[in-house]
What we know:
This protein has three helices and two strands, in the order ααββα. It is α+β, with helices and mostly antiparallel strands. The protein has a single domain, classed as Hect, E3 ligase catalytic domain. The protein has a two-stranded antiparallel sheet with strand order 1-2.
Amino acid sequence: MKIFYIDLPLYISDLEDIDPDEANNLNWVLENDVTGLSLTFSIHREILSTSYVIDLIPNGRNIEVTQENKKEYVKTISNYKMTEEISNPI
């Protein structure tokens, strides 16, 4: 099976079709203060009782999401969910 990539910008509205709950969560992040939420540029996944931490950017598990970088966080996690997570499951 061939996978074709189209080099177009991705938006949260695109993510709504794949994962509406995640899209709602990311919209909430954009609209609210994330100070103290302990979000990082990583995601946690559990597959077959094994827990994984996936860095969305280099050393992402150690980079806190702040008011200043939350747009980049939303962009990064949206991109991951719509491209890499689909094409490269753990």
